[in-house]
Structure formats: C-alpha cells, structure tokens
Amino acid sequence: MSAFDSIPVVPGAADTPPPGGTGTPSSPQSRKPASGHRRLLTRRDRVALGFMAGLPTFLHLALVWVTAFASIALAFTTWDGIGFGSIEWVGLQNFRDLFADNPQFWPAVQHNVIWFVVLIAIPTPLGLFLAVQLDKNIRFSRVYQTAFFLPVVVSMAVIGFVWQLVYNPDTGLINSLIGANKPGHYIDWIGDPDLNLWAVLVAASWRHTGYMMILYLAGLKGVDPSLREASSLDGANEWQTFKNVIFPTLRPTNTIVLVVTIIESLRAFDLVYVFNGGAQGTELLSILVTNNIIGESSRIGYGSAIAVVLLVISLVVIIPYLISTFRKERRA
Amino acid sequence: MHHTPSGLFVPGPSRRTLLRGIGGAAALGAAVPLLSACGDSDSGTDAKTVTLGSNSSDAVPKKAFAEIYAAFTKKTGIKVDVNTKDHNTFQEQINSYLQGTPDDVFTWFAGYRMQFFAGKGLASPIDDVWQKIGSNFPDAMKQLSKGADGKYYFVPLYTYPWAMFYRKSVFKEHGYEVPTTWAQFIALCKQMQKDGLVPIAFGDKDAWPALGTFDQINFRTNGYDFHVELMAGKASWTDAKVRATFDNWAEILPYHQEGSTGRTWQDAAQTLVSKKAGMYLLGTFVGQQFTNATDLADLDFFAFPEIDPSYGQDTVEAPTDGFMLSKSPKNKAGSVQLLEFLGTPEAEQIYLKADPNVVAASTTADTSSYSALQKKAYEMISGAKNLTQFMDRDSRPDFTSTVMQPALQKFIRDPKGIDSLLSSIERQKKTIFASS
C-alpha cells in the first residue's frame, strides 16, 4: 500500500512544495512550464490509470461478486463437481433437506450463536479491562501488551493444535494435572459434546481477548486527555470518569469491536477444524460447508445451500447494524 | 519512497515497474490451470516418459515406489516422472485433478471409489493390461479391479487386512485364548476388565476408525451380501438387520476405551504398545506405532470373532491400493507398459521389501521374505471368501464422510439413541444416493 500512497494520483499534487521542505529551493518560475505539461495525462498514463482502476475492479468482480452469485445459484442445484453437464436444477430441495434432515445443521447454527454470545460476553469486556489498565502507563506495559497480543499473531490452526494438546484425554496437560487420564476418571474435553464447545471457546476467547485489547487500546489512545482532566476537576472518581466520559467516546471503537466479533463468530472454522474436525458438540456452519464441498464426489449444491444460509445470517446481523450506525454518525 | 534531492516525488519508474509486476503476476495466474497437477505434467509428451501422480507422500512408501519406478526404467528405458502430493490433499483434490490435466497414471484405491471415477469417464479401461497380468491375481482381486461396466480399470499393488491386534506376551501372561466366537470374545473382554486392562483400545477422533468397527460387526452379523447392499445404498438402514448390528456393537461398547471421540488412533495404539490395552481393531498399519523391534515381534492378530455361524469368518476387510490410467494419457503405450510392470510380482516384491506393514495383492509374489505378521495377513486374505475394502471405499465417500462419520461418533457416545439415529441416516442416505 505504501507504494501507492507515495504516488501522486493528480500530477498537479507534485507542484505543492513539500511541507517544511529543506531541499534545494527551486524558483517557481523555472518550474511552471514543466508543470503545464504534467497536467495533461499522456496515453501511457491513461493506460496505466485504466489498469490501476480496471484490474482491481475486474478482480473484485470476478473473485467476490461472480463467485458469490455462482455459489448462490449452485445452492439450488445438485452437482458433484465433475463437468458442468452434471449440474441439475433442484429448486429448494437442498434447503428442505438441510432444515428437515440434517442432524448437524441446527446444532451448527446454535453453536455459531453461542460462539458470538461468548465472545461478546467474556473476552470483549476482558480486553477492554486490560486495555484500560495498560493505558495507565503502568510499568512493563509493553511486555504485557506483547504477551496478551501474542495469541492474535499466532495462526488459528496453530492455536487449535496447541490447545488440543492441552486437552488431550490421555497425555494432555489438564487431565494429567487433575489425574483424569485413568480409566473410570476420563474427562473427554475434545470428544464430549457437553464439554468440547466450551473447551474450544476457552481457546477462542484466549485469542479474542488480545484482539479486543489492541482495538480498545488504540481507541483509548485517541481519547482527548483534556476530557479526563475536566472530569477529574469536576470531582468524578475513576469509575465515573470511565463510565460517563471515556466509554461514550469509544463509540466508534465499539462499532468495530462488534462487527469484528460478529465476523469472527461466523467465520469460526480453523480452530475447531484442527481441534476435533467439528465433531458432535462443535459443529459449525463453516465446517459443514467444507465437509460437504471438499473431497471426492463432493456435494457442491448442498454445501452451497449451507453457505447461503451462512451468508443470509451474516447479512441479517450486519446490515441493520451498519445502517443504524452510519445514520447516527451522519446525524452527529 | 523515492525522493529527489529537491524533495519531490519521482513517480514514474516505480509505478510502472509495479504495474508491470502486477500484470505479469496476473498473466501468470491465468496461465496456471487452477487446482490442477503441479505443472510439471507437460514433460510427458515424449514417448520415453510416463507421468505418474502419486499420493504416497510418507517417506517409507515414497522411497519404495521410487525403487519400483527405477526398476521399470532399467527394464524398458522409459522414464517415470513422478508428481507426489500430500496423501490427504491428493484425495481431496482428486475431482479437479482428474478433470484438469492429470498425469498418465495415478495411484488410487480399489472398489467403489475406483468405480465412481471409471463411471464418470475419468479413467481409461485397461483390459489389454489385464490380459498380460491376469494370471498373477486371485479372483477376488480381479473383482476389485473391475468397473461397474465389467471392464478393468485398476492394477492392485498391495493390500492389508483389518483384524484384532494383541500382544502375545499379554495373552500368555494372563493365559488368554484367542476367541473365535462372540461368546468367547465377550468373556475375554470381561476377564480383561477384571485383570485391570482396557479390553479394546479405541480412538475415533478422526471419525474413520469407527467405520471399520461397524464393517466388521455388520458383515459378521448379516453376511457379505447384505453388507454390500447396505454400502451401495440399496438396503435400508432402518432394517432390523442393521439394528442387530448396532445391538451387538452396543454389547461390546462398554469394553472399549473411554473418551474415544477425543483420541487419535495413534494414541489408542500406544495403549496397546504400553500393554495397558488387551486388543485393538485396526489395519496392519498399526505396526507403524511399534517402533521397538521386540514390541513389533510381540504383535499378533486374529480375525474378528464369528457372530452368526452361517457367515463364520468368511469375510475379510482388506483395503487395496494400486494404480489407474487417466482418461487421455499422453503416452498411452508407455503407460500400458508401466501398468503391466506394476502388475508383476517383481514390482510388488520391491515395494514390500520397503514397507513391511502390507502384503502383495498378487498370489504369485514370493512370500519367503515375509515377516510372521505378513505371512499371517497373506493367509488371511488369500483364504477369504469375500473381500471388502472399507466403508469409505465401498460406499459413496460423500455419504460416509458427511453422514456416517458423525452418526457413528454419536452412537459411540449415546448408544441408546440408535433408533432415531438410524432413521436419520436412512433419510439422508436417500437424498445422497438419489443424486448421481
């Protein structure tokens, strides 16, 4: 991106003297004729600009819109992925099968919702709390910051792998510590449908806390210090300052946090896929899509139908929220 | 950022180089066929090279295969250009691989999985190869190599049986006898439990091991013919016979290792290695986990016990791996020669020398160098009346992976909910098998 930032898209922009420019001063007169030429776009420039605008547009259309519509269209067909001739129109049959007969579908929807609720209820406030503490410039705050943020840098698949070692029923850390790895005492963190979702959510929250912390920390850095001063002059204590002054000014951050969390909970996949492959108790829509589409003799139509359900859920959640937020911001 | 001494930006060269770079990358991206083989398949155009797509990404089989190809090149002067992909990736991409520009010859599995691609016209029939190699194979292998149209599509290389594995020293120490009937088997499980052993080691985290348990109990309870019908989607899962299979399974389920849905097969095998478990139902590849030579020598197996005397122990589950010819090979004559060579005992012996966990598919291969375990496996397979492959090879892979794997995991956790589970399986089976 920085390469683009440095390019003056309007050639005239090059005429403005650099702020506080210490370079060789050149008289404005000597530069004038040159700048007149620069204003005109040469053929080459036009081609270049056309490329710049055209290529991303083309890629965007081809990779986002065409594929999205193709996948919606495929949701109403059956197709095994072999030759376009074998695509067969089946109308709403995929959705009927999905809603009525798939024992994994409704649990998956439920788990995606639980995922969202847990991420909002636990790691988000925790991240905010950590951010507020770190914002006080306590000692070693950089060290804490790095430590809490580290899980966000690590790939989800790696997190899944590390935590399934922790939860391993025979040799895992937890069962070894509490002695639950002997016959008769087993705690099956990975396989037990009453436990595994919560076990995997601990791992997800562990990562999400750091993510939320960084977002809130950035938001807090942007809070005008004079607001704090003013509220302390008014005799507000720390909690009152936070509740009545700081938190309201964090509204843009809260929007981002909410949207990010919704996206995280809907696209949750890699962690669980590595953890236990989405076994009973941890079914997720994204995993159902993958299991149906990837592999030999794949059920592409059926998998697409699940993907469409996921798309509809995302739209239902995101669109009204963004509309109301942007409307409020425009009014403000 | 490029700055001139005057502090002005110099946009020209950097922007154009960048664009050229992007354009080049885009052109490159368009030229590489998406998801197809790794590009080096073009080199097979000359008559002296055959390209081969391989899923043998593990070190031991990869080396063994390389030795076979080297022997082939020495014999015929035809080079084999191998394109090896990760085992699971190969399997997941097989659809697009075969539709794109596949290699001339590729590794695959016998049974329904082979017939599926043969039926879709993605493989070439190789009856001419079989005229030469036919006498090397028993009838059961011939059956496994034919498509639904009766033509040959597959050259088997090696096979391995699924059986109950145990440690000879453990059986000796406690005075256990190898059970041949269901009643003896249950009694043995009870005795092992009393002796503080886990009777049957079990790990189903990857969801496929339970398919193997189902296969054994089902063809012992209902016989080979019903098992085949059930796998082909013809028989109903709500049939009382299937229910009987699950009743039998529920009877031995309490003797299985606890917490199985969170355990990998490797971890389960370790309990057999450490003598904490008495028995383990798996393929002979369980031997891979016995890294110590004395432990491996202590490993033995027996056929899954008889349940219904009218079927006895006549069926053996023996997944078979081998080779197929892609739909339009670039070097057909060379490929046929390669397949003929792969169907000889000579090629099989080269492979078996390197991988002692499997046995030759051919009956004419020399068995003198076999280990005791291999000899037993060989006898078990050659003495079998019927051979099955494995549920995900005998049935539609989409059905087994999206319906049966989660369903059996559910059964293992909650055997009482079997009736609703079976009607759910049957409903889903109908929709999957209805679509072709």
Automatic annotation (TrEMBL), chain A:
GO terms for cellular component: plasma membrane. The keyword Cell membrane applies. This is ABC transmembrane type-1 domain-containing protein. It comes from Streptomyces lacrimifluminis. The keyword Membrane applies. Belongs to the binding-protein-dependent transport system permease family. InterPro entries: MetI-like, MetI-like_sf, UgpAE/MalFG_permease. Residues 109-321 form the ABC transmembrane type-1 domain. It is a multi-pass membrane protein. GO terms for biological process: transmembrane transport. PROSITE patterns: ABC_TM1. The chain crosses the membrane at residues 47-76, 113-134, 146-166, 197-218, 271-294, 300-323. It holds the Pfam family BPD_transp_1. The lineage of its organism: Bacteria, Bacillati, Actinomycetota, Actinomycetes, Kitasatosporales. Residues 1-38 are annotated as: Disordered. It comes from the Bacteria. Keywords: Cell membrane, Membrane, Transmembrane, Transmembrane helix, Transport. It is found in: Cell membrane.
UniProtKB/TrEMBL annotation, chain B:
InterPro entries: Bact_solute-bd_prot1 (IPR050490), SBP (IPR006059), TAT_signal (IPR006311). It comes from the Bacteria. It comes from Streptomyces lacrimifluminis. Signal peptide: none annotated. This is Sugar-binding protein.
